[in-house]
Design goal:
140 residues, 2 helices, alpha+beta, Nucleoside Triphosphate Pyrophosphohydrolase
Length: 140
């Protein structure tokens, strides 16, 4: 009998922010050095040990954009199975509490009207967030 060791799939929980400001939404372009190079995303990042989604999101936005946010509404969780790992995106609609953005990880950011969001090359998982954001706007 041959035994094969199969490793467990890595599951990564990533809170992210749909940041609204002056009628527009912030999109961040991923670094060329990261996975999904130069694609667009809603900023956020992996949780640290014992962090809640909300705590992790506030910390990640502070680290990536150098701003403070206020979390307004949680959107439905989306996931993307990449075979060796599953990324679980936990999106929140947010607004800026401070406005002096300084990029530390993204190539660039853009502020877009909601109807302009599909014009960018988004990561696949972020496309689902856009659809859920549209449902959120329609229900407001």
């Amino acid at each position: 009998m041959i035994e094969v060791l199969v490793s467990e799939k890595l599951v990564v929980r990533v809170p992210c922010a749909v940041i609204e400001h002056n009628g527009k939404i912030l999109a961040g372009q991923r670094s060329a050095a990261l996975s999904f190079p130069l694609q667009w995303e809603f900023p956020g990042g992996k949780l640290e040990k014992n962090e809640t989604d909300e705590e992790g999101l506030v910390r990640e936005i502070r680290e990536e954009l150098n701003v403070e946010i206020e979390i307004l509404h949680k959107l439905p969780v989306t996931s993307k199975d990449q075979g060796w790992r599953e990324i679980i995106l936990v999106p929140f609609v947010c607004r800026l509490r401070t406005k002096n953005i300084k990029l530390t990880e993204h190539e660039q950011i853009m502020w877009l009207k909601s109807e302009e969001l599909p014009s960018l090359d988004w990561t696949e998982a972020d496309l689902d967030i856009i659809q859920n954001y549209y449902r959120y706007l329609a229900a407001k």
